[in-house]
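Hey,
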Amino acid sequence: MPESLRDRIGVDIGRRMRLEEGLAWAASNQVRYVDIQLDTGENAFTRFDDARVRSIRDLCERQQIHLGLHTLSAINVAEYSPLVSDAVEAYLKAYIDIAPRLGAEWIVVHAGYHFTADVTERMVAGLERLKRMVAYAERRGARLLLENLNKEPADAEVHYLAHTIEEWRYYYEKIESPAFALSFTANHAHLMPQGVDGFVKTTPFERVAEVRLADCFRNGHEQHLLPGEGDFDFGDMFRMIEATGFRGHYMSAFGSIEDMQIARDTFVAAAAAAGVAG
């Protein structure tokens, strides 16, 4: 039986709580898709022994929870400096190593960032690193999802890569692998001149595995607001994306986990009002 739209809308726990607590909360609230970051505290990927891994896998299997990991965007995948470059690759490999151990089905990764004067060098370095990490993921049985990131103010020195349609395409058109797909952050697209409509029309949605959700303001700056606090039209977004044939999961990323749980019904209602069956 196909999943309902509500069942396909997950919650990004991020660093809000210990992974086991987050999974228990998800199970009690019938949340089927969960994102977690493994960088800090008890959730640091260095803190998982075999017994803990087994208990997490058992919980996910028993409660039918789809677990995903989300790397930190502060780690510069486009790094090219000696020693630091090696550390970036070790970090990404650690995520790739632990994903199959935990039974995680995806790992969201990023293209890194540049410092205005070194765009080309950073893009080349990032692409080559992503290719290496995808090859490593193939061998380890993991799957990477490349996210389109947010724009920064025009006069900022530092800018995320893969925040424009053209930059995102630069990476995904050069990487073909069953271990590589896309994570489309709709609110990031809302910040760009082309908007969600422009991204949906130009993105190969058969390669999109996840759509990330938060409210913000059109052509504004990076915010992760609750639905209704910005001007994002979620109904229209669901209409456009579902019309592509997308049947992957959505991932809420704003407020508290309770805010995101409540918003699942808000999203379903907005989709229904736009003519999208639940």
